[in-house]
Amino acid sequence: MTLAELESAVRDLYDEMLEAESMIDQLCESVSEEYRQSARNLCNYLILRSADLRHIHDPLSDLGISSLRTGEGYVLGTVCKVLKLLCLLMNKEWEPGCDQALDYSMGKEILREHANHLFNGSRKKHFTEIMVTMPDEAAEDQTLLESLVQEGMDTARINLSHGDYDSWNRMITNLKAVGERLNKPIRIYMDLPGPKIRTGNINLKGKKKKAKKFLEVRENERLTLIKDDALAKEAVYDHEDKQVRSSYVGVQLPQVIDDIEVGDRVYFDDGTIEAIVESKAVDSVGLKILKAHKKRLKSEKGINLPDTDLNLASLTENDKELLPFISENADMVGYSFVRTADDVKDLYAELDNLGNRDIGVIYKIETRDAFANLPAILLEAMKRNKIGVMIARGDLAVEIGFERIAEVQNQILWLCEAAHVPVIWATQVLENLAKAGIATRAEVTDAALSTNAECVMLNKGPHIVAAVKSLKDILSRMQEHTSKRKSSLRALNVAKRNLELLRGSK
Questions:
Q1: Domain boundaries for CATH 2.40.33.10 within the chain
Q2: Less packed terminus of the chain by CB within 10 Å, N or C?
């Protein structure tokens, strides 16, 4: 490309951002003052990433000019500077009117401040924190907690989908005692359970009248999802028709049966069993098993419905009952199943009713809708000043497809960096090490990539202390080499879609 063509392409971006200033001003009116610059930067990033810039970033790099792919945290500022340098190379006079725009150092400092505020920390530079899911032993064993803190745990995660108030309170008591003894306060993060869609109770009569706690599933056989657990039964061979009749299994949120349509995909147990809906009745849907990497389907296993438009409230009645306990005892709350900006409003209204405007709120991106609506979720979330995002890679991978998870997690990182929102990297980090005592090469590489986030979450396991120690070592080494990752700037559909929605709302 010629200098003139490059200058024209960059000027088009600059002009589009200036033209959008009135819209951006309106969008940012209700944003918390601490996040106002960040909200503006996110809007400009949506403009930047709605264009395909692959044809200009290499020519810019050849000229020794920033190729724009390093500018997530300071979008308008980097566009201005690139345009000014191009004009200088062409001996053209041009003084962009963006002296107040963020630059690299300012964008990095704002993200650091937001991370410190959320995690109640005082990091002097970017450093990835470590969060650990509390095992049941945390309610009894302070020595375990001491070891975790000494090896690098900063935040304790208490998953409210499991356990009860008694065990949670004992965990909290032990965490506070250990923090005081080591003179290192331990932050507490609690997850809202959300509307968990799981298989119902499977308790069948087996051979010799022994209870059977699973259904056998095979590829190309049938499975019927039903509203009533009591009707669950296993497939039997019909000797008269000479065919296998369908197995039946209940679902813990029976109302989802009403939303599922023929042709929708249904995944069980973290995607290990894949099915498609072939028929629908009033109280059931008939499925055909397409893949069965596991041959047994048990009770309480997760169900993912990536194609189904679910008419479910993200904030359940159970969540609302738990919020006073969370508000009193936690530094951060994880919002499961958030899907839209309206979901953010619902949670904030409940927290306002409790008089709690100081608790940090982590938005767990675990569904297709949550990813698609992420910019709108962030802009609504910015009405408070202690927010973060968790990339819940387990459910998200099932929802969007395992082959897309690497691409999508990067897009989430970019959007959050543009919004100066801290990110928690979660699901199966050093999973084999925590559970089996030895790490795979692939998961060590994955752990190294997690330094792009502000926090990494480890799940529990018998070797969790060794996992924390290894992760701390990996993060300490990697932070000397990297500070966020940069991209080639293909146009993002999530940016284009949300930019159109924001323009349409004004």
A1: 204-304
A2: C
What whole-number distance in Å separates Cα of residue 347 and Cα of residue 354? Answer: 11
Q: How far apart are CA 238 and CA 236, in angstroms?
A: 6
DSSP string over 325-346? HHHHH-SEEEETT--SHHHHHH
Output b/e per residue, 166-181; b: 16+ Cβ within 10 A: ebbeebbebbeebbee
**Helix, strand or coil for residue 193?**
coil
Beta strand ranges found along 111-197 (DSSP E): 129-133, 155-159, 187-191
Backbone φ and ψ for 364, nearest 5 degrees, come out as: -85, 115
Query: Residue 488 and residue 158: Cα distance in Å, rounded?
Result: 38
Interaxial angle between packed helices 405-418 and 393-400, expressed in degrees from 0 to 180 and rounded to the nearest 10 = 120
Q: What angle do CA 250, 398, 453 make, to 5 degrees?
A: 130
Q: Which of 386, 461, 396 is nearest to 425 (CA)?
A: 396
Under the banding of pLDDT at 50, 70 and 90, the label for residue 120 is confident
Cβ pair 451, 128 in contact under 8 A: yes
The dihedral built from the CA positions of residue 290, 293, 299 and 305, taken in this order, carries a sign that is negative
Task: Please tell me the predicted confidence (pLDDT) of residue 241.
Answer: 46
0.70 exceeded by the pTM? yes
For residue 495, what is the enclosing H or E element? Answer: helix 493-504
Amino acid, res. 409: Q
Q: Is 236 helix (H, G, I), strand (E, B) or coil?
A: coil
- pLDDT of residue 68 exceeding 70, the answer is yes
Give me the residue label for tokens 């049966």: 257
- The span from the CA of 182 to the CA of 187, in Å, is 14
For the stretch 236-260, what's the b/e string if a residue is b when 16 or more beta carbons lie within 10 angstroms of its beta carbon? eeeeeeeeeebbbbbbbbbebbeeb
Contact 434, 463 (CB under 8 A): yes
What class is the 204-304 domain? mainly beta
What's 251's DSSP letter? B
Q: Which two tokens stand for residue 399?
A: 């929802």
Residue matched to tokens 């973060």: 388
SS3 state at 249: strand
Distances (CA, A) of 258 to 191, 195, 246, 261, 303: 27, 15, 20, 8, 15
| Of 149, 116, 201, 205, the residue nearest 385 (C-alpha) | 116
Which has the closest alpha carbon to 440: 450, 449, 429? Answer: 429
Residue 250: which H helix or E strand, with range? Answer: strand 247-250
- Tens-digit pLDDT profile for residues 151-210: 999 999 999 998 999 999 999 999 999 999 999 989 999 999 999 899 988 776 655 556
Cβ proximity of 130 and 456 under 8 Å: yes
| Cβ atoms < 10 Å from Cβ of 339 | 20
Query: How many other CB atoms are found less than 10 A from the CB of residue 190?
Result: 24
